[in-house]
Design a protein that fits this description.
Oligomer: single chain
Shape: globular
Mean pLDDT: 82
Structural class: mainly alpha
Low-confidence stretches: none
Strand content: under 5%
Number of helices: 7
Helix content: 55-70%
Length: 133
């Protein structure tokens, strides 16, 4: 029995949970605990193109639901889910823009966990995130 099995962690995360609920809770926690912000200076504005790229990739993925990104490498499993990559780019970009260490580490952690098949994360769909679209 592995440590992961003994901890009874979920094996699958819904898109609402990993893309909306947890990031907002983490930012709120970070603000209340007065965790120091990332000392990135003007580099924080690198989050803006990441967010824009994530939104553009998300719109493309939602218009082409069967599409995938051709990539061979360690993140090949994640590249088959372009809307998930888009969500990770938006969360990571927001983490940089807000200078949030917790949110940036969360985005990296979710990306690593999804590529190593530790967890499965659901592909975001407009109907799940926006309700009845």
């Amino acid at each position: 029995m592995t440590v992961r099995d003994r901890l009874h962690l979920p094996r699958r995360l819904s898109s609402q949970l990993w893309l909306l609920t947890l990031p907002s809770a983490l930012v709120s926690f970070e603000r209340r605990q007065a965790i120091p912000r990332l000392p990135v200076g003007a580099f924080r504005y690198a989050g803006v193109p990441l967010i824009a790229l994530g939104v553009a990739l998300g719109v493309w993925a939602w218009r082409n639901p069967k599409a995938s990104i051709r990539y061979q490498g360690p993140a090949a499993r994640l590249s088959r889910q372009p809307a998930t990559v888009a969500g990770l780019l938006v969360v990571g970009g927001a983490g940089l823009l807000l200078r949030s260490a917790v949110l940036t580490l969360y985005a990296l952690g979710i990306a690593v966990a999804a590529t190593t098949e530790t967890i499965e994360i659901d592909e975001p769909r407009p109907s799940d995130l926006l309700g009845g679209v």
